[in-house]
Amino acid sequence: MSSLSVLKFINKVIEITSMRKDSCRNCGVTMEEFQRCTVCSEVNQFVCTICRKASDEQVHPKCSLIARNVVCN
Ligand SMILES: [Zn+2]
Ligand SMILES: [Zn+2]
């Protein structure tokens, strides 16, 4: 393996791992917005445009704390 192909391989790994956040694990396509955080309004869950499988919900520790306080009050 030449150093160039090693570099290409590393770049590919980085591409795959960084893609995980907004790409479907089954189809590899870009996922669309599914749900937004009720506190900060940032998208915290995505859904696949092909198989309609939703990704894991990203919980914001700060926001869940705020949401809990709102419910308690
Ligand atoms: Zn949030
Ligand atoms: Zn999919």
Structure description:
The protein has a domain at 22-72. It is elongated and about 65 Å long. The longest helix has 17 residues, at 3-19. It is built from two helices and two strands. The N and C termini lie far apart (62 Å). The protein has a two-stranded antiparallel ribbon. By secondary structure, the protein is of the alpha+beta class. The model has no long low-confidence stretch (mean pLDDT 85). The chain has helices at residues 3-19, 61-72; strands at residues 31-36, 43-48. Helix content is 40%, strand content 16%. One zinc ion binds next to loops.
Rg computed from alpha carbons, rounded to a whole number of angstroms: 17 Å
Note the main sheet: 2 strands, antiparallel
Measured as a percent range, the helix fraction is: 25-40%
Count the DSSP helices. 2
Count of strand segments: 2
Report how far the terminal alpha carbons are from each other. 62 Å
- Ions and ligands: zinc ion
| Structural class by secondary-structure content | alpha+beta
Strand order of the largest sheet: 1-2
H/E element sequence: HEEH
Share of β-strand residues:
15-25%
Q: Given the C-alpha coordinates, what overall shape results?
A: elongated
Query: Are there runs of 5+ residues with pLDDT below 50, and where?
Result: none
List its traits.
2 strands; binds zinc ion; alpha+beta; 73 residues
In short:
The protein is α+β, with helices and mostly antiparallel strands. The chain contains two helices and two strands, in the order H-E-E-H. One zinc ion (ZN) binds next to loops.
